[in-house]
């Protein structure tokens, strides 16, 4: 049975896909019956996907790939595949469909809903997120993505002290990357919006009320020193906009369990920095806990975040720890099976 | 007198010539001519006969009979009574033991250890040949007339457990040496069945925390081991003392126990946590939104205390509570997480 499917799949040019899940998904018999004949669907708009399409591949249109995924989200391997096959296809799977189903029925006046994707390593959490992001984009949501939260912990780039709060640490380069990414993704959607209050970054530098958001972001990109503060300002603005029903916000964080770990970052005189001492982490935590309407947070716990020796656990409470679960609840845990 | 000489023969081979010289031979050579003379001068002189008399038997050094060939062990029958062979504690006698025992160092791996004949090592070690099963049997037969029978009711384990909640386990050690004492025999284990004692919820958690590993919560048993005192009786008394201390301490409640923090809780109690506040607040918001109240974010927080308007005995909050407590208590597995998901969906009215 397995060999037949592999033969069919390998003949056609297909994007990055997870073959094994075809067999092991819950409606595997249905998929198998269908897969012998059609394993692709022509429907590229995710909002039209339903449980009938489970187990089929669909292609993401090129311009969406360029815009949303090219910069930060895709790994080098995926980029290669995209270049070679000139297309990006994803398998439609039950977890993604479940989340989209909930998103369709959700009452957006309620406070922020938190989804938590969990599963074993390489089970496909990232691609469920890609699917959901594509869906949200097709509904014109504003996407705020953190492609790999553990970068803040591991990648040793400059750390500086925060101007406003002495105990927190800034990560200017990471903030800049985040801002660039955000601008690229949501350029068209945030063109009209302007800031609602003034933000003071230091004694001399401040941004006034009423300047366009894009200006604020580009200011952050050019002046790396204040990039972290700009991120904070941006998050606050997004919250205000969402509360006023002007935008719908999707926050995607891969590897949220890195928020409660020690970082590898070092600053002179300070020995070890815990993730809770980073401003970025604090800003995102504030966002996740807030009562904003029209916002959805999609987080995933990844075993990759831990050290090489520690990677056996994949269940959320083990990875996030008590603090994480207490912080995130009430959340909707969604399993991504292998 | 004997000597070895390397002698060259005529054909140029060398042989080892074993020359045995004896006084008799020498004399023999000397007195050859006297023999000739004997024939001539017969009647007057009694001729000194120095030659060897073939009739007279020489004293031959006879080897004594080999002890090894006929020891007691070799003559034993297989169905003989061992208790008569070895009645009491005795040092090892190789001749009486019919076993092919070996004991000792092997110079090379393919060589065997030394056998039992004259083996000092076997004598040094203690042997229990005076306490074999036939011996024990005869001992027991001798003592039996002083014993009474084990009561048949107590053969059932449950009845024993119910009637005798305290179980004392001690160990005796046998050795074959100059002293019968063994320091290991002072250890005493006392197994207590706690279901006969009175415990309420607080005291159960308290005694579980005090006893730690020694207590088995599901079976409600306490296992106390002690070997800290030099005498067995003292160890037993110490165990009983710890039992009384544990029991009475668990019945008492101190003032500072109310300050127990979340990390110390045995069971997750949702009512006392932050999570309850969060959920009630959320529920309050949802209700407000559903009823169409036009409230700003800022005002809703300060307006009313959520816990007043939201009744926490409502269905979805109760289900959330049970699902979340389950998740915390039992860890996460597919079932608990699924249940949790269902309860959250219910809360969000999906």
TrEMBL record, chain A:
Keywords: Mitochondrion, Ribonucleoprotein, Ribosomal protein, Transit peptide. Pfam families: DAP3. GO terms for cellular component: mitochondrial small ribosomal subunit. One of its GO terms (molecular function) is structural constituent of ribosome. Its main location: mitochondrion. The keyword Mitochondrion applies. GO terms for biological process: apoptotic process. The keyword Zinc-finger does not apply. This is Small ribosomal subunit protein mS29. It is found in: Mitochondrion.
From TrEMBL, chain B:
Residues 299-311 have a biased composition (Low complexity). GO terms for biological process: mitochondrial translation. Residues 293-312 are annotated as: Disordered. One of its GO terms (cellular component) is mitochondrial small ribosomal subunit. Coiled coil: none annotated. Residues 178-258 form the Small ribosomal subunit protein mS35 mitochondrial conserved domain. It comes from the Eukaryota. GO terms for molecular function: structural constituent of ribosome. This is Small ribosomal subunit protein mS35 mitochondrial conserved domain-containing protein. It comes from Magallana gigas.
């Amino acid at each position: 049975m397995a060999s037949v499917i592999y033969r069919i799949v390998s003949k056609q040019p297909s994007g990055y896909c997870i073959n094994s899940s075809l067999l092991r998904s819950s409606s595997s018999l249905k998929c198998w019956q269908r897969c012998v004949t059609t394993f692709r669907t022509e429907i590229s708009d995710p909002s039209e996907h339903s449980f009938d399409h489970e187990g089929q591949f669909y292609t993401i249109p090129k311009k969406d790939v360029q815009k949303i995924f090219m910069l930060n989200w895709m790994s080098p391997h995926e980029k290669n595949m995209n270049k070679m096959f000139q297309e990006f296809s994803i398998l439609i799977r039950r977890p993604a469909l479940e989340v989209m189903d909930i998103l369709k029925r959700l009452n957006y006046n309620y406070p922020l809903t938190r989804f938590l994707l969990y599963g074993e390593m390489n089970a496909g959490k990232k691609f469920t997120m890609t699917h959901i992001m594509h869906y949200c984009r097709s509904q014109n949501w504003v996407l705020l993505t953190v492609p790999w939260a553990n970068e803040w912990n591991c990648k040793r780039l400059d750390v500086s002290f925060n101007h406003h709060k002495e105990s927190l640490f800034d990560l200017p380069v990471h903030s800049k990357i985040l801002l660039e990414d955000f601008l690229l993704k949501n350029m068209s959607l945030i063109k009209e919006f302007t800031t609602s209050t003034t933000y003071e970054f230091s004694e001399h530098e401040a941004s006034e009320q009423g300047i366009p958001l894009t200006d604020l972001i580009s200011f952050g990109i050019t002046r790396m020193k204040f990039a972290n503060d700009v991120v904070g300002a941006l998050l606050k603005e997004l919250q205000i906009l969402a509360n006023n029903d002007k935008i719908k916000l999707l926050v995607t964080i891969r590897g949220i369990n890195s928020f409660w770990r020690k970082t590898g970052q070092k600053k002179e005189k300070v020995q070890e920095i815990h993730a809770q001492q980073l401003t970025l982490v604090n800003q995102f935590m504030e966002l996740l806990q807030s009562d904003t309407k029209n916002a959805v947070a999609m987080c995933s716990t990844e075993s990759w975040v831990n050290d090489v020796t520690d990677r056996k656990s994949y269940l959320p409470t083990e990875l996030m720890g008590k603090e994480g679960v207490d912080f995130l609840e009430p959340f909707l845990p969604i399993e991504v099976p292998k | 007198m004997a000597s070895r000489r390397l002698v060259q023969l005529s054909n140029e081979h060398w042989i080892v010539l074993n020359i045995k010289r004896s006084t008799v031979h020498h004399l023999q050579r000397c007195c050859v001519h006297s023999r000739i003379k004997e024939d001539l001068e017969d009647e007057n002189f009694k001729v000194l006969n120095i030659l060897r008399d073939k009739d007279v038997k020489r004293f031959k050094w006879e080897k004594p009979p080999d002890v090894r060939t006929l020891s007691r062990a070799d003559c034993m029958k297989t169905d003989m009574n061992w208790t008569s062979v070895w009645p009491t504690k005795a040092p090892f006698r190789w001749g009486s033991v019919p076993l092919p025992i070996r004991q000792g160092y092997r110079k090379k791996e393919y060589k065997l250890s030394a056998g039992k004949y004259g083996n000092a090592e076997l004598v040094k070690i203690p042997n229990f040949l005076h306490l074999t099963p036939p011996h024990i049997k005869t001992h027991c037969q001798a003592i039996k007339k002083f014993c009474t029978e084990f009561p048949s009711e107590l053969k059932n384990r449950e009845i024993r457990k119910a009637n005798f909640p305290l179980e004392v386990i001690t160990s005796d050690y046998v050795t074959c040496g100059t002293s019968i004492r063994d320091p290991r025999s002072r250890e005493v284990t006392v197994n207590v069945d706690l279901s006969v004692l009175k415990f309420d919820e607080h005291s159960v958690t308290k005694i579980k925390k005090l006893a730690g590993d020694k207590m088995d919560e599901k079976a409600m048993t306490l296992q106390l081991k002690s070997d800290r005192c030099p005498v067995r009786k003292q160890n037993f008394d110490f165990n009983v003392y710890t039992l009384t201390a544990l029991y009475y301490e668990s019945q008492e409640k101190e003032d500072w126990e109310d300050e127990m923090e979340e990390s110390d809780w045995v069971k997750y109690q949702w009512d006392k946590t932050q999570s309850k506040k969060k959920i009630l607040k959320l529920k309050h918001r949802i209700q407000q939104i559903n009823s169409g109240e036009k409230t700003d974010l800022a005002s809703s927080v300060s307006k009313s205390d959520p816990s007043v308007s939201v009744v926490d005995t409502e269905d979805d909050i109760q289900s959330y509570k049970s699902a979340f407590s389950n998740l915390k208590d039992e860890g996460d597995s597919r079932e608990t997480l699924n249940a949790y998901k269902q309860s959250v969906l219910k809360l969000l009215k999906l």
